[in-house]
Amino acid sequence: MRYSEFWELVDDVFGPQGRTLARDLVIGQLDDRTAVVALDAGEDPAAVWRALCDAQDVPAALRWGHPRPRRRA
């Protein structure tokens, strides 16, 4: 996962408060760091994403973003 994908998912799954959540929520799974601090320390964005989702009890169906309507061909 790229950093840009991480932030796209943060915005999609958590909405307007997502970036604040990533900046302020201390997550035990990340050695009591925030997502932003963990990313700045070089942690894998996918691992940080999973930890953030676990901490917020995000359902598996939403962990890769909200479903998008299919386009008609």
Automatic annotation (TrEMBL):
* Short name of one Pfam family: DUF3046
Q: Which domain of life is it from?
A: Bacteria
Under what name is this protein listed?
DUF3046 domain-containing protein
Q: Which organism is it from?
A: Actinotalea fermentans
Lineage of the native species? Bacteria, Bacillati, Actinomycetota, Actinomycetes, Micrococcales
